[in-house]
Amino acid sequence: MQTINSTAGWTAAARELENAREDRFLADPLTLCTEAERRQWHDVVVSVLGYSPPVVSVRARLGDEVVRAAAADGIRQVVSLAAGLESRVFRLDLPADLLYMEVDLPALLEARSERLAQAGRSLRPTCRRAEVSADLSKDWNGPLEDAGFDPRARTMWVVEGLLPYLEADVCRTLLRAVRDLSAPGSRLWCDHIHPDVLTAEHYAPVLQRLEELGVLWASSWPDPVAQLRAGGWEAGAWTVKELAYPRPGNPPAAWMPPVPARADTSDSGYHWLISARTD
Question: Going by C-beta distance under 8 Å and a sequence separation of 6 or more, which residues neighbour residue 237?
């Protein structure tokens, strides 16, 4: 899962660019990216496409909303797998009795702590927070339970920016483990790529550069609803373009704020945003 380390800073750079827009969809003043990560995101993606793909910021904003909705519905444990440099636990006003668990590799969790310190930030979330050092390709259930996870309680799972970098069988294994740990009424927020992006002509230079850097996507989902249904979840899935330009057959969920119809969102039909729950 070395790839995830490489892309954590890129997603932070994308959130930073969105936060700087006057018409921003996501307000995130704590992105924690470095100058080197900003330059690489620009050189590899932004300079080629002519814009920063909005899926990162839309995914983050809708992730905020789905976590808020879960908390309002009484869910009191959130697990963010491959949390990276995401700052959601600091920017949301969550209940004091909610436990927010951030799971990632030890080196990445340490890097985030160092960046927080360098930024002069001493932040305290409104909820309880636990960092869980674990490799998701190995045993992570034990460390999660040691941090306070209760498999008998409903869980809000957040899996952002991870699944596309996993081989298909590894992806299924991880989601099976998540489902096995999910009490009835648990929820899942995740994302995956649409296979069409792999053959989109204007994305070809980006894909070539990603391959050179060793961070190319390893799997894709043509039908995420069917994929998750087979794993015991009831799901809805949308691309950013479908949310910005809704179509009657697949309208946005009621809890979603309207995604702005901008030039960048009109070209964002290659990445699934997925909301699911257990019975």
Answer: 224, 225, 272, 273, 274, 275
Q: What is the pLDDT of residues 70-96, one digit of tens each?
A: 999 999 999 999 998 998 999 999 999
Query: Within its chain, how far is the Cα of 254 from the centroid?
Result: 20
Q: At what angle do helices 55-72 and 2-20 cross, to 10 degrees?
A: 90
The pTM assigned to this predicted structure is 0.94
Residue 159 to residue 279: CA distance in whole angstroms: 19
HSE-CB at 257 with a 13 A cutoff on CA atoms is 15
Instruction: Please state, in angstroms and as integers, the Cα–Cα distance from residue 29 to each residue in 7, 9, 187, following that order.
Output: 19, 15, 27
More confidently predicted of 113 and 268:
113
Q: Convert the pLDDT of each residue in 26-45 to its tens digit.
A: 999 888 888 999 999 999 99
Q: Are 137 and 168 in contact (CB under 8 A)?
A: no
Contact 135, 105 (CB under 8 A): yes
User: Cα separation of 186 and 134, whole Å?
Assistant: 22
CA distances from 94 to 63, 64, 89, 186, 277 (A): 13, 10, 8, 18, 20
- Whether residue 130 contacts residue 148, with contact meaning beta carbons closer than 8 Å, is answered with yes
Q: Who's near 84: CB < 8 A, 6+ residues apart?
A: 4, 7, 8, 11, 12, 104, 108, 112, 161
Q: Determine the pLDDT at residue 5.
A: 60
Question: Measuring CA to CA, how many Å separate 228 from each of 51, 154, 200?
Answer: 31, 18, 25
* Contact assessment for residue 241 and residue 262, using Cβ atoms and an 8 Å cutoff: no
Backbone angles phi, psi at 60, to 5 degrees: -65, -45
